[in-house]
């Protein structure tokens, strides 16, 4: 187990190196002179040009530049944003909690709806429920979520169809400006409890997160539902399910305990991989709902050609995803005793 | 080893099996029809569209579609905020979306197959390096990478196609590489090498029957993903630029008017959804029909 | 007294190509304390018949019978809830492949105690644990306490089958159905398992149905036997009678094949 974790950590280091190369090459691959590009309209006097080049370290040979980049990166320094002149790492961690919070809510939504849909479809195989749920899942899977977000706003917030119970979800941001929340952890759902009217603030934050979470969670929901169904169907044909039935267990227990525990192994993979999908969703969803997270930050940095931010952002987001994948791998060991043994034996 | 005659005898039944189970899959048939209709629309865009998609009709801004009051028979689906005919724009949009989907699929299929063959056949260090790079590419969310590539190349439809193609490469590489590794250990490849024949060529020719099925399925998925990602880039303002009638790009300007004229937001999105759904239905159907493990 | 009575049992499966009959008009009974051996090749309907008794056939199966009773219980009229009580309670079943018949994600102890929880409700958790160890010991598993924490893949096939047997008898059933219990096991283990089943039947006062394609197994381990072919019963009777004086040509051919195999083995010096 320890050996396995170490092996995974070594892989993590290699991935970090690879990501660094990608991020590093990025700024050097830009056609034309990045320094001129960055100085842009402000006009480039020879002095400011040389100064900029020196700040960016672009006057050094490539290999030295890369060494310095890695050296600084390991020490938590990825340079400063050209637009705000703030540290890229700091800007990232200021925004990351917002994205993480949204992602977690989105994934929870996806699991809470996707798992039951998949389970019911598998149990009621080839019935109306099965076809209906899988049809809905495929539509969800095919959804252009940037458009889906707009439609959600249109229907649920603007309430164009004048539906009852709709129209109370806010359209943008994490919380209404009337609440003054000090950033203690950066996670709003924790920070609200340190403020005056915690319940009102909590409720307000919940209202804000609802639509973006649904938009972001739709594709993972569909993937989870489909995977749950097929995985469960496969497991339900196994011999040990017949044994469980022969023991006189209720159908409910056979499915929820004996079948689901084994079906969970591929489902966990999919949920883990969903995190990548959720981040992809974040880039689009945050733009639509003006969510102050890393997705919007990155898109803005591309539009304003803020290269240090693009470079650092890619590295940090990539690492975040790789770390999540590592956690998923470790979660396997907990679920699948066979795998756990295989690793213990290799010790 | 399978005898060649036996293999030939198996082929037609294999295809019949496939066709039998494909035809019974209603979803796959619907998907096929959707795709055929959109391809037809794309090809006949200039005949079908009532107007030039970029022509601005002065004073005819935000004319509502036929089901709303104040509609005009000249513009069946209404006009956008600049007074362009929405139906024509949607029809020409089909041409762009189907076109980019096709380009992305072909680019990534060819590049991915070649890289996969190289990695699988060479093995050793080449393989390790290639697969590491692919792992890193796969670790990053596709749209993030596409954004990065666009940041390097600059915005525009063609650059977006290149970006999206690059991010689709790893899935093909993995598929091809895995098959090559299995195949090159087989006797005939080893045997042909001893006769001085090119083992690479042998492997190349022989793996194709084996990976054709998964490659087709993967291509369908690349097609739908490609359309979605291009539209997403367009929506972020990083893909096709106005006045190109690309569906994702159309949503950018539309979202400022969506309270007063919701149809200009709704319709392009519905088009994207239907096309992507069509490809996913087809992909699902093909996978079920081609993958014997999933057969009941 | 009859523990199990099956009269005119027919089972069909609904498929795309219409109804396919697996068992046609089969009748048999199991007496108190005896072992009924059912022999036949695969597809002869022997497993399907016993799964019909257990109520474990898939949902596309159509079961018809004029009588199907376990003790005084009419299985045809029993509710699903009642059937659950009977399964693992009044009747237990073990299967062909012990390695895949145990859930890979749970420990032996968990799976055993689960059976106890459903059929011996008076026991608390501690008592169930003790009882489970006792059962493992009963089926001849050494150091049962340590095995409780093992996962199925950590045990050999023979051990897994012993665990399966322990689970099947946890509810003190009157009837134990063993469906090809030794087919997936090594020859030496086969004899051990069959002897274990014989011992348990006597000690725990059970009746047993022993399903196998091996007429030699039936000859040694059953009181009465029934030969099935293509979903129908071709011959029933006392095992000694059937073996000595088979009345049906199919039984005769089974015996011939068996005798031939035995002589072959002897000739090659394999026992």
Could you give the count of β-strands of chain B? Answer: 0
Number of helices of chain B: 11
Overall pLDDT level of chain B: 82
Q: Largest sheet of chain C, if any?
A: 6 strands, mixed
How would you sum up the global shape of chain C?
Answer: globular
How much helix, percentage-wise, in residues of chain B? Answer: over 70%
- Biggest beta sheet attributes of chain B: none
**N-to-C CA distance of chain C:** 39 Å
Rounded to an integer in angstroms, the radius of gyration calculated over CA atoms of chain B is 23 Å
* Cα-based radius of gyration of chain C, to the nearest Å: 19 Å
Report the span from N to C terminus of chain B.
27 Å
Tell me the strand percentage band of chain C. 25-35%
Which assembly state applies to the chains in this document? heterotrimer
- Uncertain ranges of chain B: 1-12
Structure in words:
Chain A has 347 residues and is an all-alpha fold. Chain A contains 14 helices and no strands. Helices cover 74% and strands 0% of the residues of chain A. Chain B is built from 11 helices and no strands. In chain B, helix 1 (4-24) runs antiparallel to helix 11 (263-290) and helix 9 (199-235) packs antiparallel against helix 11 (263-290). Chain B is elongated and about 80 Å long. The two termini of chain B are 27 Å apart. By secondary structure, chain C is an alpha/beta fold. Chain C has helices at 46-54, 80-86, 98-101, 108-119, 125-138, 144-147, 157-168, 187-203, 215-221, 239-244, 249-267, and strands spanning 2-15, 18-31, 35-39, 61-64, 67-70, 73-74, 91-94, 175-179, 207-212, 224-229, 232-238. In chain C, strand 5 and strand 6 (73-74) form a beta hairpin. In chain C, helix 4 packs across helix 5 (125-138) and helix 7 packs parallel to helix 8. The chains are: A mainly alpha (347), B mainly alpha (296), C alpha/beta (271). The interface between A and C is medium-sized, with 20 and 30 residues.
Short description:
The complex is a heterotrimer of chains A (347), B (296) and C (271). With 347 residues, chain A is mainly α.
What labels describe this entry?
heterotrimer, A: 14 helices, 0% strand, B: 296 residues, mainly alpha, disordered N terminus
């Amino acid at each position: 187990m320890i050996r396995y974790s170490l092996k995974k950590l070594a892989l993590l280091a290699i991935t970090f190196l690879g990501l660094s190369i990608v991020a590093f090459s990025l700024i050097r691959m830009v056609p034309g002179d990045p320094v001129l590009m960055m100085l842009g309209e402000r006009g480039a006097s020879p002095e400011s040009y040389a100064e900029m080049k020196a700040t960016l370290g672009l006057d050094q040979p490539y290999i030295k530049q890369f060494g310095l980049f890695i050296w600084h990166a390991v020490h938590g320094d990825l340079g400063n944003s050209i637009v705000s002149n703030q540290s890229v790492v700091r800007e990232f961690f200021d925004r990351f909690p917002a994205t993480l919070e949204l992602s977690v809510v989105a994934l929870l939504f996806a699991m809470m709806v996707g798992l039951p849909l998949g389970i019911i479809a598998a149990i009621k195989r080839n019935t109306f429920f099965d076809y209906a749920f899988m049809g809905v899942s495929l539509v969800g899977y095919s959804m252009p979520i940037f458009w889906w977000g707009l439609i959600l706003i249109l229907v649920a917030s603007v309430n164009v169809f004048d539906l009852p119970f709709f129209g109370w979800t806010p359209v943008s941001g994490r919380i209404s400006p009337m609440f003054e929340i000090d950033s203690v952890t950066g996670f709003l759902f924790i920070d609200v409890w340190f403020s005056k009217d915690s319940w009102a603030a909590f409720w307000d934050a919940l209202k804000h997160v609802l639509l973006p979470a649904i938009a972001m969670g739709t594709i993972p929901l569909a993937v989870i539902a489909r995977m749950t169904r097929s995985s469960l169907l496969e497991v339900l044909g196994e011999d040990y399910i017949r044994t469980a039935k022969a023991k006189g267990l209720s159908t409910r227990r056979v499915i929820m305990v004996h079948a689901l525990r084994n079906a969970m192994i591929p489902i966990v993979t999919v949920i883990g991989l969903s995190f990548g999908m959720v981040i992809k969703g974040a880039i689009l969803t945050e733009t639509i709902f003006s969510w102050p997270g890393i997705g919007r930050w990155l898109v803005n940095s591309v539009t304003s050609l803020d290269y240090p931010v693009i470079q650092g952002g890619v590295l940090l987001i990539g690492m975040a995803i790789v770390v999540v994948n590592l956690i998923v791998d470790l979660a396997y060991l907990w679920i699948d005793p066979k795998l756990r043994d295989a690793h213990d034996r290799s010790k | 080893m399978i005898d060649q005659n036996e293999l030939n005898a198996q082929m037609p039944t294999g295809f019949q099996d496939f066709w039998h189970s494909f035809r019974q899959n209603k979803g796959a048939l619907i998907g096929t029809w959707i795709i055929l209709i959109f391809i037809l629309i794309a090809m006949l865009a200039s005949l079908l569209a009532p107007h030039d998609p970029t022509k601005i009709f002065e004073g005819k801004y935000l004319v509502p579609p036929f089901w709303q009051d104040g509609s005009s028979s000249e513009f069946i689906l209404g006009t956008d905020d600049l007074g362009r005919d929405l139906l024509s724009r949607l029809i020409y949009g089909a041409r762009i979306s189907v076109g980019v989907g096709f380009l992305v699929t072909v680019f990534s299929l060819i590049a991915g197959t070649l890289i996969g063959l190289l990695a699988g056949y060479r093995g050793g260090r080449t393989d390790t390096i290639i697969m590491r790079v692919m792992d890193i590419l796969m670790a990053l969310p596709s749209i993030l990478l596409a954004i990065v590539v666009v940041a390097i190349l600059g915005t525009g439809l063609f650059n977006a196609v290149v970006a999206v193609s690059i991010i689709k490469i790893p899935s093909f590489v993995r598929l091809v590489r895995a098959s090559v590794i299995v195949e090159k250990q087989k006797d005939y490849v080893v045997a042909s090498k001893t006769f001085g024949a090119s083992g690479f060529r042998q492997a190349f020719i022989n793996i194709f029957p084996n990976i054709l099925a998964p490659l087709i399925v993967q291509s369908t998925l690349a097609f739908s993903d490609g359309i979605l990602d291009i539209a997403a880039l367009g929506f972020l303002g990083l893909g096709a630029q106005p006045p190109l009638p690309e569906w994702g790009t159309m949503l950018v300007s539309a979202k400022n008017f969506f309270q007063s004229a919701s149809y200009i937001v709704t319709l392009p999105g519905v088009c994207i959804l239907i096309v992507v759904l069509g490809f996913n239905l087809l992909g699902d159907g093909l996978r079920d029909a081609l993958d014997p493990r999933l057969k009941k | 007294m009859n523990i199990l009575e099956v009269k005119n049992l027919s089972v069909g499966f609904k498929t795309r190509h219409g109804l396919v009959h697996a068992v046609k008009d089969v009748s048999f009974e199991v007496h108190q304390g005896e072992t009924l051996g059912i022999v036949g090749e695969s597809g002869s309907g022997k497993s399907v018949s016993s799964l019909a008794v257990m109520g474990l056939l898939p949902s596309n199966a159509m079961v018809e019978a004029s009588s199907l009773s376990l003790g005084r219980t009419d299985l045809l009229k029993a509710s699903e809830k009642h059937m659950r009580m009977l399964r693992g309670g009044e009747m237990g079943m073990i299967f062909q492949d012990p390695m895949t018949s145990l859930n890979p994600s749970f420990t032996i102890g968990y799976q055993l105690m689960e059976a106890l929880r459903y059929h011996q409700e008076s026991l608390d958790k501690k008592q169930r644990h003790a009882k489970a160890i006792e059962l493992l010991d009963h089926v001849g598993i050494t150091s049962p306490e340590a095995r409780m924490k093992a996962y199925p893949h950590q045990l050999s096939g023979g051990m897994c089958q012993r665990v399966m047997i322990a689970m099947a008898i946890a509810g003190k059933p009157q009837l134990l159905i063993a469906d090809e219990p030794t087919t997936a096991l090594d020859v030496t283990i086969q004899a051990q398992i069959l002897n274990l089943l014989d011992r348990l039947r006597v000690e725990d006062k059970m009746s047993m149905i022993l399903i196998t394609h091996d007429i030699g197994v039936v000859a040694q381990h059953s009181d009465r036997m029934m030969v099935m072919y293509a979903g129908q019963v071709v011959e029933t009777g006392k095992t000694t009678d059937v073996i000595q004086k088979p009345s049906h040509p199919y039984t005769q051919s089974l015996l011939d094949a068996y005798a031939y195999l035995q002589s072959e083995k002897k000739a090659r010096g394999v026992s």
